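[agent] plan:
  1. take the single chain provided in the ticket
  2. run structure prediction with default settings
  3. attach structure tokens to the ticket
  4. add a short note for the reviewer (M.T.)
[agent] executing step 1
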Amino acid sequence: MTKTWNVYLSGEIHTDWRDTIRANAEALDLPVVFSGPVTDHGSSDDCGVDILGAESDPFWHDHKGAKVNAIRTRTLIADADVVVVRFGEKYRQWNAAFDAGFAAATGTPLIVMHSEEHRHALKEVDAAALAVASTPEQVAKVLAYVITG
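[agent] step 2 finished; step 3 output follows
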């Protein structure tokens, strides 16, 4: 029986990098199940107040959402065999850095993906990763190698 790998895809939500990794994994017939955060920005930002009630102070609005999202994030990272964290070009992804740190702290293997431009800024994150890639295709190839040898 072949192990099914759980891979958590964290990070920027404005490009199709997750779809590219999924498509490559499927083309390589890898036994992988992917998970990740809620990628609808508005839903993610507002989940706390939508479910638990409005907040007039923006701090508490964000605090509620962050905690509700953390239930999903922490659970799925804890269950993951590998965590992939993508740092994009457009926004600073503080949550992605936190996810990378959480994965590293829990001993979950970490693959980081970002452009050369962010190499210096992410040097500590890169140092915690077991692989640093620049494209989704490279991530899929790392997964293929790890899974199939």
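[agent] step 4 note for reviewer: The beta strands are 5-11, 32-35, 82-86, 110-113, 131-133.
[agent] ticket updated
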